[in-house]
Amino acid sequence: MVKNVIIIGAGPAGLTAAYELLKYEGYRPIILEQNNFIGGISATMKYKNNRIDMGGHRFFSKSLEVMDWWENILPIQGAPSSDDILFNRTPNISQKENAPNPETEDKVMLIRPRTSRIYYLNSFFDYPISLNFRTIKNLGLIRMFKIGFSYFKSLLFKRPEKSLEDFFINRFGQELYETFFKDYTEKLWGIKCADIAPDWGAQRIKGLSILKVITNILKIGKKETSLIEEFWYPKFGPGQLWEEVANKVSQKGGVIKLNTKVTKVNMEDGKVISVEINGNETLEADYVLSSMPIQELITALPDVPADVKNVASGLKYRDFRTAGLLLKKMKLGYSLNESILNGMPKDTWIYIQEKGVNLGRIQLFNNWSPYLVEDYQNTVWIGLEYFCSEQDELWNMSDENFIQLAITEAQKIGLIEKEDVIDSVSYKVPKAYPAYFGTYNQFGTIQKYLDTLPNLFVMGRNGMHRYNNMDHSVLSAKAVVQALINPQQNRTEIWNVNAEKEYHEKK
Length: 507
Prior knowledge:
This protein is α/β, with parallel strands linked by helices. 34% of the residues lie in helices and 23% in strands. It contains 19 helices and 19 strands. The chain has helices at 12-21, 64-73, 82-86, 133-139, 141-156, 164-172, 174-189, 199-204, 210-217, 238-251, 294-300, 306-313, 365-368, 393-396, 399-412, 443-450, 460-464, 470-485, 492-496; strands at residues 3-8, 27-32, 44-47, 50-53, 109-113, 116-120, 123-126, 230-234, 255-257, 262-268, 271-277, 281-284, 287-290, 315-327, 349-352, 361-364, 380-388, 421-438, 456-458. A 7-stranded mixed β-sheet has the order 7-6-15-16-17-14-18. A 5-stranded parallel β-sheet has the order 9-2-1-13-19. A hairpin with a 2-residue loop joins strand 3 (44-47) and strand 4 (50-53). The longest helix has 16 residues, at 141-156. It starts with a strand and ends in an 11-residue tail after the last helix.
């Protein structure tokens, strides 16, 4: 008898789970996605003939299992693309026989050089911070002395890590924390670092410190996550890979329903028996795998204990809004060995540390993949990213006003000129970032309750309320599938994804 496995969400976790389940007989995955597109936050949106990545997604992981999984979906390029040749940035291309050439084939993963920097004091700083001449020149000797002094002080006097602020200061010192981490992080989360749990730092940059930056400069040991020099990237953006996974799922007998919102999860004798969709249809379920925001899942479940409901209702999220701008050129000028066409810098993304603007980050899509841009040699296609919360002014601003704000702020800090804007578009991503404040410190109450439901599993970024990368979503989905087909296996492996001391994304 075939068992119905309802999968809530067609993002990386949901699609991975469906793909993995189809390797076993007797399971029929049915993916329910409330949006009209595939990929979740990793979707690639198409505006006219340009494509926009909702956040900038590197395909790189410490887990060879994940890297092999991705490569099985889209093979790695076997020849440089035209922009690599044009700008003398030829990567270490694949030597595999019959590897696809991105100039002639579409189903291919590019190998991209990684460059991202911080824009602060009208200057560029390497990210992560490097101890080089440019950094010293931009900061000045007095500030550099303060940074060095406070760093050595942090080595001698460690703070109890009760907050993200403690986490940063213990690794970088007070001065460097206030210079490069405090303002951007508070812009991202909309709350003081002192009020954020240290778990975010532990999951995002746990291996990084000044000592690791120095050893990286000296080529000692392995590179940490933020120090990798290359990454993979689908020719037409991350959504291309997840759309390919969706195609394979459908071809193998899985079902994907778009514009389908789960409104209620029905239970009987402590087990899930069905889900209600769009408020007017019921689907029977032998299992439910959920990547929907855990706050919404708890609301959809019946007879949830009051303490679990209270913790779930207090979970917080940060939302995301981006303005895509098509430009004739950027305003920035560079030396010849660093410049790219039309005044565009070499970065894939730029962190905006400048005070006085809400702008948080800029994506330069020409550098992610030239194939995202219809005319990448004569136009610049960028995404201006803002972090906000639903119901606040920025989130509810009209598209026209939001785009004008983005253009004004980008011009204010010297990145573009208004007259160079050719076209524009705006997108919103609700619940993009699970937050480490609110009732997050009581999350164990939710986890303990969910583990008592034998045929309900959670996975992925929002499903587990963790600021995970794509590789973690893949790994959590694979762990869920293994727990499903091996009922005697406990769920420790699922919750351990991105909770161990060694972060997966490592070179």
